[in-house]
Specification:
Elements lengths: L1 E5 L2 E3 L5 E8 L8 E6 L6 E6 L5 E3 L7 E6 L4 E6 L8 E7 L9 E5 L1
Parallel strand pairs: 2-10
Antiparallel strand pairs: 1-3, 3-8, 4-5, 4-9, 5-6, 7-8, 9-10
């Protein structure tokens, strides 16, 4: 199983980014997937999840600004992030449901 995130970067407050997570070694359509983030000096924090039936959940901090989606034909998970705030600065991880497999993370900096 391999998860490779991309799409992070430096953005000004109010800006947008779209994170991608390319999955290999398993069929993502049969798994739930999560986005988790970790800011410097803080614990890892749940951001959003999509289960195998397409049901979606968000952390309160992400609701209304972030949108999770999955393209099963490309085995890829996405996180569209809008209206970014400095407090969204973190390393963002793509994680399988049950937190068994993690990507290496992609850095998002809002400044």
């Amino acid at each position: 199983v391999q998860l490779v995130e991309s799409g992070g970067g430096l953005v000004q407050p109010g800006g947008s980014l779209r994170l991608s997570c390319a999955a290999s070694g398993f069929t993502s359509s049969t798994y739930g997937m999560n986005w988790v983030r970790q800011a410097p000096g803080k614990e890892r924090e749940f951001v959003s999840a999509i289960d195998s039936d397409g049901r979606i959940s968000y952390a309160p901090s992400a609701k209304g600004r972030f949108a999770i989606s999955k393209d099963n034909t490309k085995n890829t998970l996405y996180l569209q992030m809008n209206s970014l705030k400095p407090e969204d600065t973190a390393l963002y991880y793509c994680v399988t449901s049950g937190y068994a497999y993690w990507g290496q993370g992609t850095q998002v900096t809002v400044s």
